[in-house]
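Appendix C reproduces, verbatim, an entry submitted by the partner laboratory led by Prof. M.T., so that reviewers can inspect both the input and the predicted structure.
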Amino acid sequence: MSAEITLLLLVVTVITLGYGFIYPRFAGNSLKKLSIQDLFATAITLFIAGNLYYGSGVKFSWLLFEVNWFWFTFLSYLVIEIPVCIAYAKKHKMHFR
């Protein structure tokens, strides 16, 4: 399995667990609680990715650019999470104030 696929599976897994199981139970429609829990989930994802690829010299292809493990994971997390977060906010009638 390629390094990109490994990190994408990690990102999808964390986002699925967060928005599918954890956030509905512990954050509900509170933007503050969701933000704190999501920050924690993002940190865990970056920690795991770092343990796998820090210092390995592996280059990741992100769209048209070559990036390191941190930027690949972070940017992929953002791109995947934004539509999921919007759908979650609509479903739970969350207010962004």
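Residues 1 and 7 are 10 Å apart (CA to CA). Additional entries are available on request from the coordinating office.
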